[in-house]
Design a protein that fits this description.
The longest helix is centred in the C-terminal third of the chain and has 24 residues. This protein is 73% helix and 0% strand. It has twelve helices and no strands. The chain has 252 residues and is mostly helical.
């Protein structure tokens, strides 16, 4: 292994039997670290997340200072790394936990409780609440703006991957529930539908963040209506066509 760069070593490990054990060990370590933080008192969790969130929102991922987060949270560096694997893990945890708490504060989004009658109305309600939140100046909203707009300092590949995985899991749960209710197409692979949904959401978020400060109420309402229509068209069973993988392979 001498002479291999860090990324090349990861590739070698990933492809080897040793790599399977290494990945399992890494997943186990991450799970233990997450459990440690989640076992903290809820109020203390909030203090740490808010301290880190403020720093990331103000300075971006790369420029954010771990030492400043430690001072804000009134926590030792040893304790911080006891609860989080590294800076990327801290950022990903801040973003995902804050997103979950935002959903909880605005009335929650119980995927399993969605019915044929409430599926689209609940998605519209959450979209409306999300747009309202973007007009506020909380650290969470500034964090989202920084993330979606590239923000100062960018975002590490590891942190981005964790946030992407979190978003994909939540998106897949909504789509699966929609399929159970007969409201979401089943003619394409779930992975494809999740990817397309995430791409549509990313494009919509970026456009809205660039324009929301100058938009009037009627413009925001029109945007929400058109965005929901785009999701309906993407997900609708009425748009279903036969997915012939063999034919696709032959054409290629």
């Amino acid at each position: 292994m001498v002479g291999l760069e860090h990324g090349e070593l990861d590739v070698v490990l990933h492809a080897s039997p040793v790599g399977a054990n290494a990945r399992a060990l890494r997943a186990g370590v991450e799970s233990v670290v997450r459990t440690r933080f989640e076992n903290l008192d809820g109020e203390r969790q909030e203090e740490i997340l808010e301290a880190a969130g403020e720093e990331f929102a103000e300075r971006g991922y790369e420029s954010a200072s771990v030492n400043q987060i430690i001072r804000r949270a009134k926590i030792s560096k040893g304790s911080l790394y006891y609860y989080f694997e590294d800076k990327a893990d801290l950022f990903a945890t801040v973003f995902t936990k804050a997103s979950e708490r935002f959903l909880s504060r605005v009335g929650g989004f119980d995927v399993e409780a969605l019915t044929e009658e409430t599926f689209w109305s609940e998605i519209e309600r959450m979209g409306r609440l999300g747009l309202e939140a973007l007009r506020r100046d909380s650290w969470y909203v500034r964090l989202v703006r920084s993330l979606k707009q590239g923000g100062p300092g960018g975002l590490s590949e590891k942190a981005a991957a964790k946030i992407q995985a979190w978003g994909e899991r939540h998106t897949e749960r909504v789509l699966e529930r929609g399929q159970q209710l007969g409201l979401v197409r089943e003619d394409v692979p779930m992975a494809w539908l999740v990817t397309m949904t995430m791409a549509l959401g990313e494009a919509s978020d970026r456009w809205m963040l660039e324009h929301i400060d100058t938009m009037e109420e009627r413009d925001v309402e029109a945007f929400l209506t058109r965005a929901l229509d785009a999701y309906r068209r993407l997900w609708s069973p009425d748009e279903a066509v036969a997915w012939d993988v063999d034919a696709d392979e032959e054409r290629r």
